[in-house]
Amino acid sequence: MAPLSEFLIFTGIGALAQIVDGALGMAYGVTSAGMLLGLGMPPAMASASVHYAETFTCGASGLSHWWAGNVRRRLFLVLVIPGVIGAIIGATVLAHLSPIWMRYFLTPYLLVMGLFLVFRTARRKDLRTDVPRGTGVLGFVAGLLDAAGGGGWSALTVTTMVARGQEPRFVIGSVHLAKCIVSLAASITFLLSIGQSKLHVVLGLILGGVIAAPFGAWLVRRLPSRVCTLMAGLAVLALGIYNFYRLLG
């Protein structure tokens, strides 16, 4: 396949993944990394490529959410610092160890939390405005799993905080802005551990993600909270089923 054709394919992958991720607050890594793996890229290189791109795409998405009023400063700070520490450890683990064991933890978690979110929309509950206890620990675990397992930052953080009653659009916006810094930390670690990825892959993912980022922020601002919660629950269920399928395979 010609380099230009490959570049356009990766641009399309980046755009599709970013629209889903920007609107639902999750699934960029799973969508893009899954497609890269499907094209035959080794797992460590696929994860590194996605994190290189996410440094820019999540930056664009996070800024879009900030301009749209979807970011809470304190929530961002509580997530980003432990998330960076976890990402550095996770990227180091992936460079030296198979991440398959992490799927045994992530898969049942996603299935249970997805069902919880779907059924949660059937009852009304006042949304919280504070930052719940344990959010820093959540950021660390999410950063660790995201870098080591190729994805999971948004699935863990968004799912857990929305399930605890946080306003979905503020959770999504704050998580995306924090993800930019977490991805930068993971990218530097990958760069030092395994070296550079294919440039046209990273540039295609970046271009598609940057173009699509404002649409995700615009969409989440206009969807009702219960609709965002339901969509997030369905997305988490899909991720859990996908991981379960991979485990069986």
Automatic annotation (TrEMBL):
This is Probable membrane transporter protein. It is a multi-pass membrane protein. Keywords: Cell membrane, Membrane, Transmembrane, Transmembrane helix. The keyword Cell cycle does not apply. It is found in: Cell membrane; Membrane. Its main location: membrane. The chain crosses the membrane at residues 7-30, 50-68, 75-95, 101-119, 170-194, 200-220, 227-245. The keyword Cell membrane applies. Pfam families: TauE. InterPro entries: TM_pro_TauE-like, TSUP/Inactive_protease-like. Belongs to the 4-toluene sulfonate uptake permease (TSUP) (TC 2.A.102) family.
